[in-house]
Design brief:
By secondary structure, this protein is an alpha+beta fold. The chain has a domain at about 65-175. The chain is built from five helices and five strands; from the N terminus they run αααββαβββα. It is rod-shaped and about 110 Å long.
């Protein structure tokens, strides 16, 4: 095809003039984003990100905290089985029976749970009036980040408190 300039198209015939008018109209009708519109979009995206990122972080932390508490519940359930099978040590003093399940006693009963400390244990205490208390000492309780949401029954999570009773745990998990 020949190289034809717009002037030649314009001069060649009336049909060429119509094509040239359409061509110039298309060139003049350019649409796009201005710099201000682009900046407005970026600001809106930044605001959405500023709101969404902390919310997502809280969701992740809460799910990790719930996983720790769920593991704690499973450890107590495993300890109940271990006590039933008489795999833990029992002592009696002053009409109080104490059965202690160490982390090594609990390993066969809590598949998939690793103990962070050799001091992790479950203690079953039966008082003279036959009230039973299950108490878990679990190092992972110190990793709970949300110290306001996961409180209940006298338990305050955090690095200083690594012990929780079954009653406290059930109160937290049901809220």
């Amino acid at each position: 095809m020949m190289n034809v300039t717009p002037k030649e198209i314009n001069e060649s015939n009336s049909r060429g003039k119509m094509k040239m008018k359409k061509f110039t109209k298309i060139l003049k009708n350019q649409k796009g984003l201005t710099l201000i519109e682009l900046l407005a979009v970026i600001v809106i995206l930044a605001i959405v990100a500023a709101i969404a990122v902390p919310s997502i972080g809280n969701i992740v932390n809460n799910s990790k905290d719930k996983a720790i508490l769920s593991e704690a519940s499973n450890v107590i359930a495993g300890a109940k089985i271990a006590v039933t099978e008489e795999k833990c040590s029992t002592t009696t003093a002053n009409n109080i029976t104490t059965t202690t399940c160490s982390s090594s006693n609990l390993l066969p009963y809590v598949e998939g749970i690793t103990f962070a400390s050799s001091g992790d244990q479950v203690v079953k205490t039966v008082a003279a009036d036959n009230t039973t208390t299950w108490t878990l000492t679990y190092a992972k309780l110190g990793k709970i980040k949300n110290t306001t949401k996961f409180t209940g029954g006298g338990f305050t999570p955090g690095a200083a408190n690594l012990t929780i009773t079954e009653t406290q745990l059930n109160t937290i998990l049901t809220n």
